Each structure stands twice: as C-alpha cells, then as structure tokens.
Amino acid sequence: MRLLLVNPNMTQAMTDSMAAIARQLAGTRADIVPLTATRGFPYIASRAEAQIAGGVALEMIAENLEGIDAVVIAAFGDPGLIAAREIFDVPVVGMAEASVLSAAMLGERFSIVTFSPVMRRWYSDCVAATGLGQRFTGVRTPQRHAPDVLHARTAQRAALIELSRAAALEDGADVVILGGAPLAGLAPEIADEVPAVVIDPIATATAQALALASLRIAGPSRASRPIGKSSVGLSPALSRIIAAESPLPG
Amino acid sequence: MRLLLVNPNMTQAMTDSMAAIARQLAGTRADIVPLTATRGFPYIASRAEAQIAGGVALEMIAENLEGIDAVVIAAFGDPGLIAAREIFDVPVVGMAEASVLSAAMLGERFSIVTFSPVMRRWYSDCVAATGLGQRFTGVRTPQRHAPDVLHARTAQRAALIELSRAAALEDGADVVILGGAPLAGLAPEIADEVPAVVIDPIATATAQALALASLRIAGPSRASRPIGKSSVGLSPALSRIIAAESPLPG
Amino acid sequence: MRLLLVNPNMTQAMTDSMAAIARQLAGTRADIVPLTATRGFPYIASRAEAQIAGGVALEMIAENLEGIDAVVIAAFGDPGLIAAREIFDVPVVGMAEASVLSAAMLGERFSIVTFSPVMRRWYSDCVAATGLGQRFTGVRTPQRHAPDVLHARTAQRAALIELSRAAALEDGADVVILGGAPLAGLAPEIADEVPAVVIDPIATATAQALALASLRIAGPSRASRPIGKSSVGLSPALSRIIAAESPLPG
Amino acid sequence: MRLLLVNPNMTQAMTDSMAAIARQLAGTRADIVPLTATRGFPYIASRAEAQIAGGVALEMIAENLEGIDAVVIAAFGDPGLIAAREIFDVPVVGMAEASVLSAAMLGERFSIVTFSPVMRRWYSDCVAATGLGQRFTGVRTPQRHAPDVLHARTAQRAALIELSRAAALEDGADVVILGGAPLAGLAPEIADEVPAVVIDPIATATAQALALASLRIAGPSRASRPIGKSSVGLSPALSRIIAAESPLPG
Amino acid sequence: MRLLLVNPNMTQAMTDSMAAIARQLAGTRADIVPLTATRGFPYIASRAEAQIAGGVALEMIAENLEGIDAVVIAAFGDPGLIAAREIFDVPVVGMAEASVLSAAMLGERFSIVTFSPVMRRWYSDCVAATGLGQRFTGVRTPQRHAPDVLHARTAQRAALIELSRAAALEDGADVVILGGAPLAGLAPEIADEVPAVVIDPIATATAQALALASLRIAGPSRASRPIGKSSVGLSPALSRIIAAESPLPG
Amino acid sequence: MRLLLVNPNMTQAMTDSMAAIARQLAGTRADIVPLTATRGFPYIASRAEAQIAGGVALEMIAENLEGIDAVVIAAFGDPGLIAAREIFDVPVVGMAEASVLSAAMLGERFSIVTFSPVMRRWYSDCVAATGLGQRFTGVRTPQRHAPDVLHARTAQRAALIELSRAAALEDGADVVILGGAPLAGLAPEIADEVPAVVIDPIATATAQALALASLRIAGPSRASRPIGKSSVGLSPALSRIIAAESPLPG
After folding, report:
1. What family, per the record (chains A, B, C, D, E, F) (predicted)?
2. Cα–Cα distance between F22 and F71 in angstroms, integer?
3. Does the structure show a pLDDT above 60 at D231?
4. What is the pLDDT of residue A218?
C-alpha cells in the first residue's frame, strides 16, 4: 500500500518527524509518501489559516493521488478533511479526527494536551465537529505561548507531563491526545508518567489510514458525491476531479 | 455606511440580483459594494467547493476592506465565514447563518426550502454549525436537480411554493428560509401563499449586517484573534492582515 | 417606523435610560415609544416574577400596538417573549435573546456578565431556551448581591470590567453580554478594557427590532398562530387579539 | 395528606373528571382539593395562554396553600410549573412533566397522543423543556381540530387507539402518554388495545405528588429561592409569598 | 402491595439499612421483601462489576417475582435496570434513575454527592444514560477513597455536608442526591445544614416504586418486549421468562 | 499478533463465518483465536440478553487473555464492551462501536441496515451510547422478523440491497453498516449496488483491533481502572483480574 502523508504546514522538519513515525508504524505494510506545503503558513493555528491551507491540501492530494491507497492530512486540526472526503475516492484521515475517534475506542472520556494556548479554540472546534463533544474533557495547555513551536516537544516536556496528569486525575480523561504536529513522537516517551492512555496523533492517523484502506471500500458511486463543476484558477488535477461526472441523488 | 457584498460564486447575474435586493433593503442607510469571484466556481454546492471559495472570499474581503463597515458573504452556505470573522475587524455576516439566527427570532422552528437536492447536505451542515439544529425541521427540495440553476426562481416557482407549504403544515416550521442565491427575491413574491414567515436570505443578511454595524463594536483587541503569521502565496492584502500582531490570550 | 419599548419592570428610571440608548441607536429611523409596567415588580429576577410580568407585558403590548412596527421587551430574561411572538403580527424582540443571537454572529462563544448572583439562574435558563447553550461559557457575577440594583452600573464598574476580562481570558468568550437593565449603556464605556466584543442588550435588541421590521414580513396567516379563544379577566385589547380567528393547521 | 389540584383552565367539567381520577388513585392516602380557574381560558392550548394562565395558577396556589402537602397543576402543558416551584415550599407537580418523567421509568422511548393538532407545538415544547427530548418519539394527533374538545375522549376514541398503536408500532414508543385534560380517564380503557404502556397524566401526576410529598422534603432554606420582592397588583397571598425574605446564595 | 428490594451487592448490612428506610417510607402501604446477592461483589463500583451484578439481579428478580407489585434495584448505579425493564411485567425502579428523575421534579439542576472518588465515573455515566445530563451539575466526592465503605455515612458526615453545601452554593444545584447505598438514611439528618433539597435514593426509589405500582399499568403486550429465546446456563426462572412468547413488532 | 475473537452468541456457524472474514482481513498480520459462548443465547437481540451475555464475554476473555494483543467482541451490539475496557489491559473492540466510529471517518452520516425489526431498538441504543447519535440516520430493516436468522444473508439479500439503497438515497447516509453477525460477509457482495460506502462490521472491527494494537499502548496504570475487588461466583481468571490492585485516582 501507499499512504500519502500531506503536511499542509510549510515546515519541512515537521513533515520529516511525522513521516518517520508513520514509517515506523506502517513497517512493511505501506510506503509513506510525505509532502510539505509550499504555500500557506509555517504552522496553522486558526480557522482562517485552516481555510486557506485546506485548499492547498486539496491541491496537494489531487496532484499526487496516482497509486495512493489512503491519505493522511498531517496537521492536527484537519484542514480540508471534510472537503477532501467529498471528492477523493480513497479514505482520507485527519490527525485530530482519527485521534478523537480512536480515543473513543480506548476509553470513555478523552482530553487534548498541547503546547500553546493559541491552539485551544481551533482544537476544541475540531472535537465539536466530530459530534463527540460530550465525551471531551477539554484542552489543557501551558498558560503562555512560546514562539519556538518547533522545539516545544523537548522544551516543554515537563509541563506537558504535568498537564497530561492533570487531564487524567482532575478532568477524568481516560485517554490523553498529545495534539499538534510539534509534539509528534512524544506520547510513547511520557506514557509511563501519565495515568491514562496517551496517544500520538500521527501514529494514530497512520494506523487508521491503514485500517480503512484494508477494508478495500469502493467509493466512486456514492450518492453523496458532489455533482461535477467547472472551475477557474484551480490546479489542473484538482479541477479535473471536481469536474468529474457523478451520480445525482434520487 | 458601506457594506461589502462578496459573492464567492463566479456568476455575475447572481451578484446583480442580490445587490439589487440589498440596495432596496439598505435604502439611504448604506452603499452596497458588490464583488463577484473571479476564481472558483459558477455556484458553490459542496463542502469541497466551499473550502476553496472560502479562501477566495478572504482575499476578496482583504483587498476591499478600506472604508467598509460590514461584510456580507453572499452565498448561502457561508464559505469562509468563520475564518473571516477571526481576522477582520468589522462584522462579517453570512446568508445562511443570518437567516437561521433571524428565523430564531421570528418563530420557534424553521425550515430551509431550496431549488435542488444537491444542496441538501451542505445546507444541513450549515445549520448544525450554528448550534440551532434542534429547532431545524429540515431541508425540502424538488426530487431532481435541474441544471439551469440561474432560472430556478421562475422555473420552479410552483414547486417551491408547494415545498414551503409542506414545510409549514407538515414539518411544523414557523419560518421558511428560501435558501440559495438563485432564489434571491422570491420570498416576498410567494409569502402570501405560505402559512409561515418566509424570509429572503440576502435581504436578511443585509439587515443583519446593518444591525451589527450600527452597534459600532470595536474588534481589534479581542483575545480570540489569532496571533500574527507569516505566509507564502496569499494576496498581499490578506497576507498583511494575517501577519498583524495581536494580543496573546493569557 | 415606530418601536414599542416595553419595560415589564416597574422602574421608570430603567425605562428612561433604556429609551435613551434605543433612541441613540435608532436615530431618525424610528420613533421609540417607551412604556413602564404599572403592575408587577420593581425589577424581575426569577422565573416566578417573569411568569407574572410576562402576562403584564402581553397586556402592555396589546393596548399599544396601533401603528407599531416592532416590539422590544426591555428586560433581560425576556418575560412573555415566546407568548408575544405567538399572537402579535409584528416582530417581537427580547433583550436576552437578541443579545445571544447577535453574539452568535460576532464570535464563536459568548458569556453573560451581570451585577448580582441572584440573576444567574434565570439568565442561564434564557440562554438554554434559545438552543445555543453549547456556545455559552456561563454567567459571571460579583459574589454578593448588592441591594441598590439601580446604581450597579457605576457602583460595580471595576468589578464588572474584571468579570468581563475573566470571561474573555479564562472562559474563552469572544463576546461578552452585559446582562440586565441596570447595566444599560455600560458596554461602550468599558469596551476598551475588555479583550472581547462587549455588547449592550438594549442597543442590540433595538438594532434587531429595526432589522426584523425592515424585512417587512407579513405574519397574520401563519399556520402556527393559536386558534381563537374566548377569555375572562384579560384587558379588552389582549382579549380581542386572543379571540381572533386564525387558520387551523392542516 | 392534602393535595391541591389546580386546574388553570376554566372548565369545571374537566376539573370534576380529573378530581375523580385523582381521588381514585389517592384512595385514603390523601384528600384532593380541586380548584377551577375563574379567569383565563376554557382550555389552554398555546404558550400565550399558558403565560397568562400560569400567573392565575400562582395566585390560586398561594391563596389555598394552608395545610397542603403537594400541588398538582392539572393542565397538560404545566402552566406556571417552573415559577411555582421557585416560590412554594411544597412539591409542585405538572401533568406533562410528571408523565414524561414517569414514562422515562417505564420504558426507553415515549410518545404523546392527543386530541387535536392544535396542541402539538405546546406539548412538544413541554417535553423539550424537561431535557428528555432525545427519548421522545413525537406527538401524534388527528389531522383536524374538532371544536368540541370536552367530548374528545368519547368522540375520538377509535382514532386515539389507532394513533396510540402507530406510536408504538411505527415510532417505537414503549410508553404512550394520552395528553390533555379532556382525555383524563381514557388510558385504562384502551390499554388492552395498545402494545405499549399507556399512561393517564392526571393519575400519574397524582401518584407523583403523593410520592414526592411522602419524602417529607424541607424546602424553605434552598439557595435557589428568589430573594424577596415587593409587588403591585398581585393577590395578597401571592404578594406575601414573593415578598418573603430568603437566603442569598453565596 | 409487595415490593421486592433487590440489593445486587453482597453486603447484608446495606440491605438491612435500606430495607428499614423503605419500610418507614412505605408504612402500611406495602410489604418490603429484601434480598441480598449471594454472588458478585461486596459493593459495586464500576461498569465491569455492574455488568456481572446486573445479571445476578435479573436472576434474583426472576426467582422472587411471584406476588410482587414492583421491584427496586437497591444499588446506586442501577445494575441490570434497563435489562430488567425489558423482560419483567411489573415496574422496575433503580436508585440512581429514580433519584435523578425525582430531582428533576424538585428543581432545575441537581448534583450527586457521594463518599468516594472511585464512584464518580459510574455515577456520571448513569446520569448521562437518563438523558438529563444537561441539568446535572456533577459529582462531588472527598478527594481520597476510604476503604471502610460501610461506615462512610458516619465517618465522613462533616465532609459530606460540606460537599453538599458546595454543590448548592458553587455548582448551583437545587437538589443534592446523596448517592450510594452506604449513605442510606443520611439525607434527612443533614437536610437542615444544606441550602438545597437533599434526597435519599432508597427512600426516593421506594416512593417511585409505590407510585408506579399504584398506576396499575399492564405490561405483557408491549411491542417492545424481546421475542422469546432459548438459553443455556440461566437459572430456571429467568430462563423461563426469557423464553416466553411475546408479540412481534409490526 | 494474536486477536481474540469472542462470539458471545452460542452459534458456532456465526463464529466460523466471522473468523473466516477476520482471517482474510488480517492476512499474515495476526492469528485469529475464535471462541463461541457455551452459555447464554443462540443469538442476542435485546438489552436483557446482552446483560447476561456481556458477563459471559468477560469470563471468556479473562480465561483466554494469555498472549493476546487485542480483543474483538464479535456480536453487533457489543455485549460487555464497556465493562471489558475497564478491566483488561489490551484494546477491546466491539463490532457496533468500531463500525460506527469507522463510518464517522468515511462520511458525514451513517445508517444501519439489518435483517429483522427485532434488532432495531438495541442497535439504536448502541449508536446513542457512542455519542454520535446526531450523525445517525437510523436503522432500516425488513418489516417482519424471519425466524431463520442464520440464513438471513442469502434469504433476504434483495431486501437488504433495497434497504441499503433507501438508507443512502432517502435518509442521506454516506455509509451503510450491515449490522448483525448473520450478515457477515455480505457488504463486499452488494457494495456495487448501493450508492454509499457499505461496511462489514466484523471486517471493520478486525481492522480496528489491529490498528489499536499496532499503537502499542500501555494500559495498566490508568487512573480510571476500578479498584481491586473480592468476588464470589466468578470464574477464577476473571475473579483474579477484578481483584488486582490498581492505582486510586487522586
């Protein structure tokens, strides 16, 4: 199998660390094809940025879909996920959604711990969008934003352990999701210090992409596929996919 | 006052008819500045198209914000609305959201009637996003999609009256929203034949934009504004706005 | 246009200050016709009082409806609002509901800040009644009730600023509603000190009443209007309106 | 024990039939003290009427509270219930609420069957107000309103059996509530013909009032009691109760 | 009447104290038939234990159903309640569910106070299962688990009063439920020290069992009864009941 | 890896067909260890049966846990799932829950199609328990129960295709789940005839068990694990697991 790992952030180092984790998880089962955005933002932290980066993600997927069995949108917050699912005929998985739905199979309540208060709103909105808000005990973050996002995993390690413990012991989370691409790989390192299941979103999203791809589900004839549309200004591959004929409901 | 009426669809005729209704509603209170998308789709009907068109809408707003008191995103489905609200310092109103929230002040339950089954999912998702799903009695549409969307208002008039009556009498809607830019202007024409309040989304969105602008609310210092970000590939005006410094929460 | 501003509280000074704000907002667009209850309570603070004052409000509206384009029920908590909307053929707007629904167009989450813990329950119930409870971050109030309600706006100004800041920074509210007639006019005075949109309920309700009236919606034939009823002991005007024939559903 | 059975409708015949059922249920356990409204409406069918009749009910209770152990508000729709519960120190039970909460102990899902489509909205809103809307399968009624409400029980008997069967077999209701004072006493007569538990609201409300009274719960010191208020125009007994001192929260 | 009081815990002392309270409440109205589990756990505190103890409860009920008018499952958390309600033709009441639904008739919001943090999750899940989660202000418990569960009522009395006061004054609960069999009988003792209605689950469940039994509802023909099934390894009485023919829906 | 496939139904033929599908999905990645219940029911169709069979499943798992990496509870309806997750330190997956959560990654709305109206209530309750009820479009079944459950897959094939088409085209389901062990293997056979994603619960549950096991999550130290308990009458293996010491919260 081949998994497309689309990082809609422009930070290559994040892509590299996430691709390494995905490869470790996939082993010999799948090739990981990583891509880094060349337009947009160094890292996405708001709905406005996700609006734009989600469009970029659609183009990245469309241009690289050949021979791909499943897609991982490799930014916690899942820019473009719902849109991608409408038009591509392979499973598309988001890091936040896959983490939340997996957490729901690993415990009753789950929490998100992340590196900056700046991410709180967007992540909360992502959980609400899944429909599982009532099982969510909230986002815990350090009180202040540290500008060096890339090294949050090491620089904030002690604080993140403390926040994860509080999520388990005070908020009652059975599962703690370490949200945000900069924290990729931290979960197994701190799991022993947290009295909850701790999950790594990129490992989880990779596992889910493999799981869904293994079901060999056909997609093209779905009644819910949008009707074909002409367009202006899109990349040729995306424009072609959106223009494709599709069955009308009814 | 000056209202920016941003049509993220590429169909000029829709912009013209919506601008005429907005001008009639605004009278001497505001100048209406209409814009039509030059990239994207003739009309938006899916989440995938809204993902892209929402990014286009952000650029259209950013480039034309000078001297503007409020913005109307003039496509039912509100592409880019949540994103725009995060970064622009004037009220931003969407046709669907403004209709739904106004409907909630005009009755207990509301319905959407529109011209094609193709729109059903996107519109339903818009209502759910407001949080008012429990007061929503559903979308009623003709059974089949008619390709000539632009003339739906006249070609399907009888069917739309029948659907509106069913929304009131069978579904219990107190308010019927005639969703979709192609139906702009139909509401007052058929109101007498429907035993419910019938509202026109573009008139309603214009009224709401004027109402919110009249409150003269200052926005720049909001704690929820995203922190400034560098970017690549955005229009200069949008890039500048997203790069602006903003207060951090905490 | 003419707006009826019905204060179901018996405190004339509250009516005066609210009428002044409504007039400032309406400018030349509408005459404001203020009324103060002559039965009931100095100010309403519970469901029990709202039950009675809501009936008083219905009579006040019925007796003064001639030539009126929209009604504002000028007590946060909206006594009689749902009832009034069933039987009167003009838009009826409540201060709490209009604030909540407007807040939902100005941000993702909203909070209420008010002058006394005594109001907390009633206000929370009002928000729940709109259906938007999931976007509500709660009511913040001083810990103790101060008997001089009328001067809360000046006497508690510093505390109210602090509560509003906490609503934004700790609870994550994008919009803070300064609830309760005694706080009318405070919002613009403290907006600069609060990192959120701060809204004044009477200004907001007036803006919404003008917005809904500008839609020129006809009401009389709604399927949801109650059937006509005879009555005993009501004021003649209200009795007449409730006795009016109306179309039966079905 | 003594139960006050307050009919906020003005129809004495309804009070008589409900009092007979309450007496049969209570047996020697309690005296039933029935009261019929002398102001208001022959029977209540809307929120507007309930606004007024609820105020009447408060006065009826206040004036007759001496020696009473619990109160039943004997109109399905429960006018004044929430208000009464705030200010009176004995349990107050409503026919709709008691039926809904009892139904939730007798099965997973419940339905309301009633005699006229005119009642549908008000009854649905009552269920939503309890918070149990997700277990509610809806209101089933005859398609047309029959003006002779008082004899609905006999005149519509066959239709009501058919509607109850449909509620069970098509909607999946485990419990069918025969809503509305005119149907008092019908439940045991048709229970054998309906494959669901069928409950009579007045019997159920009486049973609940006895149950809550038997718990001998003290009420006066509740933190949620409203603070005392002066008033104008209320009956002396109600005015006295609302003026009573009460502990402030905090 | 005869009420079966089934304690699915194996602790006879708990059964004795609960039976005493049930007898006091029932007076001459009903005989209380208490049973203590002979398999399972000393006291149930988790979903896993409730899975097993619920099956034990079904067998205890089946074997003792002769001449019984209603059943109380006498463990807060209600093991086997939903299952029992499907197959037995008398009302079956659970301590947690009866407390929650009664609380909903005694105030707007309710809280649970209990003796150990160990119980928090299970009790919260019980409330959510009723559908009334939005009126629930949470579980308050001492911070640490005290192994001597049986004497929690006396040993933790001061702490439980403090927690109940906090539930009322800080969380806004109108009603406090003292959850857990070991606290049976505490409610009337501490009611005067708590500014909320305080209810005792076993008294409340007994009152509800009597109330539902007094409605003399017939059950056998319900469409929702499961179809008859053969079984292996069940007690003969339970096997017989589950094998009974029943009407199919449709 | 080794997956325990626990069929809490007593029908060996169901176990065989499910094990075959699980083996096909797992390929060389895992050994499938199938077990069939020796107590309980031929097939489970109600909450009462699930109460008992869930206890049986706990014992089956406890006795066969040695060397197991994940557990699949192989009955749609997931008897014992929540209980098992509390006490076993490997991932435990249910057919219904895994199908619902996977469906949520494959589309916006999902439906269940099954072979008998008898299953409707139990399956609906399972979906509600996940928290995703708002994305669920309901259960579609044939109108009548056919006693030969085992051959439903072939005997009702045409009807099940028709129901699946209706779920997609009328109810708007993006994903159709073919619920119930007797339908194992049908999904790929009919997928081409249904304009929706069609998923097979046993294949999906196997894929999810493999995915969760691949995350190599450690469980023993979770704060949510119940405290150790003595017991009477349980199988020795289960008794030992429930008696194990575990960390207390706090």
Report:
1. Belongs to the HyuE racemase family.
2. 12
3. yes
4. 64
Q: What percent of chain F has pLDDT over 90?
A: 88
Is there a single domain that holds both residue C192 and residue C118?
A: yes
- Tokens linked to A149: 């996002």
Q: How far is E79 from chain F (nearest CA, A)?
A: 9
* pLDDT tens per residue, range B121-180: 899 989 999 999 999 999 999 999 988 888 999 999 999 999 999 999 999 999 999 999
Residues 6+ apart with CB under 8 A from C248: C227, D117, D118, D144, D145
The beta strands (E) that lie in A78-183 are given as 92-94, 110-113, 136-140, 175-178
| DSSP of F4-35 | EEEE-SS-HHHHHHHHHHHHHHHGGG-EEEEE
Are B30 and B64 within one domain? yes
What is C151-193 written as a DSSP string? GHHHHTHHHHHHHHHHHHHTS--SEEEE-SGGGTTHHHHHGGG
First to last CA, chain B: 35
Exposure on the CB side of residue D188, measured as CA atoms within 13 A: 12
* pLDDT of res. A70: 97
Verify that C158 and C229 share a domain, yes or no. no
pTM (2 d.p.): 0.95
In the predicted model, what is the mean pLDDT of residues C88-113?
96
Range of the domain at D40: 2-95+206-243
Q: Are residues D87 and D117 in the same domain?
A: no
Is there a domain that residue F70 lies in? yes
Give ∠ CA D117-F141-F194 in degrees, rounded to 5: 110
Say yes or no: C6 and C88 in one domain.
yes
Residue F250 counted as domain residue: no
Q: Do D142 and D49 share a domain, yes or no?
A: no
Looking at the fold, whether E185 and E103 belong to one and the same domain comes out as: yes
Q: How many domains does chain B have?
A: 2
B248: in domain: no
CA D231 to chain centre: 27
Find chains touching chain C: ≥3 CB pairs under 8 Å.
A, B, D, E
Residue A209 belongs to a domain with what CATH number?
3.40.50.12500
Interface of E with F (CB under 8 A): 10, 38-42, 45-52, 54-56, 58, 80, 82-84, 86-87, 117-118, 120-121, 143-145, 224, 226-227, 229-234, 242, 248-250
Complex prediction ipTM: 0.96
Q: Are E104 and E90 within one domain?
A: no
CA atoms of B234 and F123, how far apart (whole Å): 49
pLDDT value, residue D207: 98
The CATH number assigned to the domain holding F152 equals: 3.40.50.1860
pLDDT of residue D170: 92
Provide the token pair at C117. 């813990």
pLDDT at C150 (0 to 100): 85
For residue A249, is it within any domain? no
**Partner-chain contact A108 E121, CB within 8 Å:** yes
Which of the four pLDDT bands, split at 50, 70 and 90, describes residue E219?
low
User: pLDDT per residue over F14-72, tens digit each?
Assistant: 999 999 999 999 999 999 999 999 999 999 999 999 999 999 999 999 999 999 999 99
Q: How much is the pLDDT for D25? A: 97
**Residue A217 confidence (pLDDT) above 60:** yes
Taking CA–CA distances from F223, the nearest residue in chain A reads: A195
Place of tokens 């005839």: F193
Q: Is the pLDDT at C246 greater than 70, yes or no?
A: no
**What is the Cα–Cα distance from C194 to C164, expressed in whole angstroms?**
6
Distance CA D140, CA A187 (A): 53
Residue A69 Cα to chain centre, angstroms: 17
Write the burial class of residue D247 (CB in 10 Å: 0-12 exposed, 13-18 middle, 19+ buried): middle
Sheet containing C110-113: order of strands: C136-140, C110-113, C175-178, C197-199
Distance from CA of D244 to the nearest CA of C (A): 13
- Regions in chain B scoring below 50 on pLDDT: 220, 248-250
